[in-house]
Amino acid sequence: MREPTLRTRVAAYVLRRRAGRPPELLVFDHDADLPPGTHVPAGGVAPAEPLEEAVLREVAEA
Could you give the CA distance from residue 33 to residue 49 in angstroms, rounded to a whole number? Predict the structure, then answer.
């Protein structure tokens, strides 16, 4: 059996707050390469990529 590979990933919970309305969570429906369902921005971190940059990139890609 092959040894599992560890991979660093990030995820973001992005809230939008507007006066007089409840907070809204940024979500999106699945894409062809994701499991079915609703997702928050998330993904892998490139080698030597700072976590802060990775999470901002994932939010921009959502």
Answer: 23
| Host H or E run for residue 15 | strand 15-16
What is the tens place of the pLDDT at every residue in 13-50? 999 999 999 999 999 887 677 777 888 999 999 999 99
CB 39 within 8 A of CB 27: yes
**On the CB side of 17, how many CA atoms lie within 13 Å of its CA?**
1
Kindly report the pTM of this predicted structure.
Answer: 0.76
What are the residues facing 24 on neighbouring strands? 16
Nearest alpha-carbon partner for 43 in 33, 55, 53, 52: 55
Question: Of 29, 34, 32, 28, nearest to 14 (Cα)?
Answer: 28
Element (H, E) at 9: strand 9-11
